[in-house]
Amino acid sequence: MSACGFGPDPVERRHHPTGRDFAGKYLDPKLIIESCHSHHELCHDDWKTLGLQELDQEASILEENELRMRRLASNLARLACSPDADPLLVRLARSLPDWANDQARSLQALDECHPGWREDRRFYRTG
Asked: pTM of the entire structure?
């Protein structure tokens, strides 16, 4: 059995670092981090603490992308704590929250300038 992506413990879980959408489908089904049970639970605890738990209503692609960035940043930050963490991983963990904040500001501007955009199904994966 191989080591957990977060530490030396054995792999027990397949963790999807961007999580699920409102319908329970993985946002990125092929993006998987193998983890032990403890680290898998810690990642989900992090999401709860940060208010990034599963969606309870449909979100636009733009909102999903912001959530993807925030969830992935949370997971990468945990991986980046390892003393032998790849420097690129550390930089991504630090950059993703800024990108998510840019996305949030863009969404706010879109809401202010074009309040009806959320009614346009082209902004949704099911559109």
From this structure: 0.91
CA distance 11 to 40: 10
Amino acid residing at 70: R
Would you say residue 111 has pLDDT above 90? yes
Distance CA 104, CA 68 (A): 12
Question: Which residues are CB-contacts of 19 (< 8 A; sequence separation ≥ 6)?
Answer: 26, 27, 47, 52, 54, 67, 71
Residue 77 in this model has a pLDDT that exceeds 90: yes
State the Cα–Cα distance between residues 1 and 85, nearest whole angstrom. 21
